[in-house]
Amino acid sequence: MPAASVTPTDLSITPRDRRFARESKPGRWWHGGDPFATAFYNALSATFPKGEAFFVESVRAFRDGAPAKLAEEIKGFTTQEAIHSREHAAFNKAAVDGGYDLKPLEDQVQRRLDFINSKPPIAAVASTMALEHFTAIFAHQLLADPRHLADAEPEARAMWRWHAIEEIEHKGVAHDTWLHATRHWPRGKRWKVKANVMLLATRNFTVDRTRGAIELLRQDGITGFKAWFGLLKFMWVSPGMMRKIFGAWAAFFLPGFHPWNEDDRHLIDRYEAEAALGIQSAKKVRRAA
């Protein structure tokens, strides 16, 4: 590859086949009784079943002929993403059972995907690369700052944290697939295309997720200034997820950028240590009972 991958050579992409929101389903305002926080995350979740299926197909299209390491990472990526799609479908069903209509949000996702799929396959992998950077920096922020999910119901918090560690784990796959697919391109062309795709993806992501959350708030009877003020405050001020990821988002445009320029596997290690401790505690409770 003319632009080198810096994905750690000892990285292992390990699908963790877990299930959520089956027996213990999240409540309507599952994020601490806060309609704005709940609407933001529900609007994001509504994109995943269709969106991650799209990611899988866009990357898989370039697996043949890829270096052996990348081909293996693509396999792990596609397995993880398929499980994510399944679990967010279950999470979204719980939202629908709670009274929300997610169809307007899902239809908007489909319109975006139909447009991208009308283009050559390289457009799909470029879009996946840009959106995977979004999911990776969201995931980093969710795990690095526990306050983002501190008020969420345990089952919902567990699902989002589980999803986050796998997004970090496979954050370089779409980028490396892009490097492989464009290996014969001049560096200038590669940068120009990826920058333009990221700007478009950013515009669509921000506008669509905001409008989706506003629609869910409307279904809660929260409209007008109250809806916009509460949502934008949550997104940009406190806790301000969109503001806090800005630096990591901007790094995408730097020469030599690669998602693994920041090795944040310590967040995965911390999660797995906490998960193991939780399992041990549960076993002790059962033995005591």
UniProtKB/TrEMBL annotation:
The record lists the lineage as: Bacteria, Pseudomonadati, Pseudomonadota, Alphaproteobacteria, Sphingomonadales
- Give an example GO molecular function: hydrolase activity
Q: Which InterPro entries match?
A: UCP07580 (IPR016516)
Q: Which UniProt keywords apply?
A: Hydrolase
Which source organism does the UniProt entry give?
A: Sphingomonas caseinilyticus
Pfam families linked: Metal_hydrol (PF10118)
Q: Does the keyword Hydrolase apply?
A: yes
Report the domain of life of the source organism. Bacteria
Entry protein name:
Metal-dependent hydrolase
